[in-house]
Amino acid sequence: MAEIKKSEHIALCHRWEDYLQDRSLFGKRTIEAIRPKFSEWITRTHGSRNYYMSQLFTGHGSFGHFLFGIRKKRTDESCPHCGNDSDTVEHTLQTCPA
Known about the structure:
This protein is an all-alpha fold. The chain has helices at 2-19, 28-34, 38-42, 51-58, 64-71, 89-94.
C-alpha cells in the first residue's frame, strides 16, 4: 500500500509539473517563480502544505503585494509571516523563512 501511494504521488507530481508548462495558464508570474524549484518544494520534508503553499502550486496567489496593490484588500503589502515590507511570490519562494 505504501509503495502504491508513493508511486501515485510521484506520478501526480510529474503531471502537475507538466501542467505548469502550459503558457496559457493564469498566474504566470507565480508559475515562473515556482517552476525552477518545483521538485525541491514538493519533496521537502520541513514545513507544511497549507493555504499559501496551495496558492503557489496552483499558480494563484493572494500575496500581500497583490492584495494591497491591486485589490486594496489589505492596508499594506507586508508578509504576514516574517514582516518583510513586500510579500511577493519571489519573497515567499526565495527569502521568507516560513
